[in-house]
Design a protein that fits this description.
The complex is a heterodimer of chains A (245) and B (219). Chain A has 245 residues and is of the alpha+beta class. Helix content of chain A is 38%, strand content 21%. A 5-stranded antiparallel β-sheet of chain A has the order 1-2-3-4-5, with helices on both faces. In chain A, helix 1 crosses helix 2. Chain B has a two-stranded antiparallel sheet with strand order 1-2. Classes of the chains: A alpha+beta (245), B mainly alpha (219). Chains A and B meet through helix 1 of A and helix 4 of B.
């Protein structure tokens, strides 16, 4: 066999093209093969967030993913509303809170997850309302569970894209999220004032239903959370008013 | 005139044992005296970024292990065909393909962890340990030796980041693998250890101890 000149331009181009084709094909197969599984993982995560907010932080301990999906299908009913609180037709599965967030507030379609009691799904345990906003570095979002009385926060689950680990990223800690439990929404004529993170940390706000102990070193993330909750609770106000007892 | 006939003696090349002494040292050296992190000071970026909790660190360690070993084997197998002028690009393409595969797999099967590791799985591509081993070893050695070398070096990387994560999770959150081990009643989690600065200091201490023990001095 004649020796190939491995330094010729032809060989180099051929080698590069072949390698790209092989690797590209491989990756296409990997991506296609795992697509469904990835979509399912994202869906289960959303179900986890909604159930953890609606039924309590420890309600999913020991449950596997299929069990979580089963529980979700049993207790959660989805409604879609507009910013006037009127029910609208929309496919919740295709509804992206992020895309809706980009629209003007009045044009958004909002999903409401009505979570029923574990032992009696027809009785309302809480309304879980998704919210979206800006933190310090990137977007933050939350699922806020409001009690059946439409006034008390029963649970909240935060997530974020790029908050600072150890500081703003603490909003994903159960300990921080617990600080919202039992706090109240304050209804005003056409808005809702949600409880706010206060400056400083380690203060006791047990008797002040509108104040939440803050996160030291994460003031801007906290301000972002406050703005997000106020804005979205106001959007949900027309809906929540109808549920108020 | 006499003709001397020299018998051609075929020297049979001895095949090396599968785990010869030399090959064992391929695995054991990177653990200590030739550790990629403490001696070569490579892969520091991810050692600081992914060590906040043990679980994520373990996944990262396995990911790096898979990528380094596979890349070493593939490049070693191709080493005689790779055109010298584009060898770095060829190495990168192979590494990138492996890393993308790992990233996609994690997203499908360990979604929460892959979110926690965020960009750092993708950044394995630029981890100097991977490229370093390909250039320094796989381009000039056989696949089996390269596999052992990749195993040794990634293990050397793994044990260091696991050690850092152990200290950080224990002191930073009072937990290990997510379980509370230091009672909240008497231990207040030290937030400093949750920051990358703490990882830098712990890493410095590990490097110090290892170098003091081996007497290694940088040239």
């Amino acid at each position: 066999m004649s020796k190939l000149n491995r330094n010729s331009n032809g060989y180099i181009f051929g080698y590069a093209i072949l390698l790209t084709l092989v690797c590209g094909t491989l990756l296409a197969f990997v991506s296609e093969g795992l697509k469904e599984k990835q979509k399912a993982a994202i869906l289960v995560e959303k179900q986890k967030f909604i159930l953890r907010a609606g039924l309590g932080a420890t309600s999913l301990n020991g449950l596997t993913d299929p069990m979580i999906t089963e529980l979700y299908n049993q207790v959660v009913k989805v409604e879609t509303i507009n910013s006037k609180g009127e029910s609208v037709e929309a496919d919740e599965a295709k509804l992206s809170i992020f895309k809706e967030y980009k629209k003007p507030a009045a044009e958004r379609t909002l999903p409401v997850y009505v979570v029923g009691k574990k032992d009696n799904p027809s009785e309302v345990e809480s309304f879980v309302l998704p919210t979206y906003g800006n933190g310090l570095w990137d977007n933050i979002w939350a699922y806020v569970a409001i009690d059946g009385d439409a006034e008390t926060i029963e649970g909240i689950v935060f997530d974020h894209k790029g908050e600072t680990p150890g500081l703003g990223a603490r909003i994903t800690d159960a300990e921080i999220q617990e600080r919202f439990v039992g706090k109240k929404l304050a209804y005003e004529a056409s808005s809702i004032n949600a409880p706010d993170f206060q400056k400083g940390e380690g203060n006791n706000f047990d008797n002040e239903p509108q104040k939440v102990d803050g996160m030291s070193g994460a003031t801007i993330t906290g301000t972002g959370v406050n703005a997000m909750l106020d804005a979205y609770m106001t959007l949900y106000q027309p809906y929540l008013v109808t549920k108020k007892k | 005139m006499s003709t001397e006939v020299i018998d051609k003696v075929e020297v049979k090349k001895e095949t090396e044992a599968l785990f010869s002494k030399k090959r064992k040292s391929l695995v054991s050296n990177p653990m200590d005296s030739d550790n990629p992190i403490t001696i070569q000071v490579l892969g520091i970026c991810s050692a600081l970024a992914v060590t906040i909790a043990l679980q994520g660190t373990l996944i990262m360690a396995f990911a790096v292990m898979f990528v380094v070993m596979m890349a070493n084997v593939v490049i070693s197998a191709l080493r005689n065909t790779i055109p010298n002028r584009i060898r770095i690009i060829v190495q990168l393409v192979v590494v990138a393909t492996l890393v993308a595969t790992v990233d996609q797999t994690l997203r499908a099967f360990a979604y929460e962890q892959s979110k926690a590791l965020s960009v750092f799985v993708g950044l394995i591509i630029t981890n100097c340990i991977v490229m370093g081993r390909l250039e320094a070893f796989a381009m000039g050695n056989k696949p089996w030796d390269s596999l052992l070398d990749g195993f040794g070096n990634s293990l050397g990387y793994a044990w260091i980041i696991i050690a850092i994560a152990f200290v950080r999770e224990l002191l930073g959150a009072g937990k290990l693998l997510g379980f509370q081990v230091l009672d909240k009643a008497w231990y207040t989690a030290n937030g400093f250890f949750a920051t990358p600065a703490a990882a830098c200091i712990i890493l410095g201490v590990i490097i110090w101890i290892l170098r003091a023990r081996s007497g290694y001095v940088e040239d």
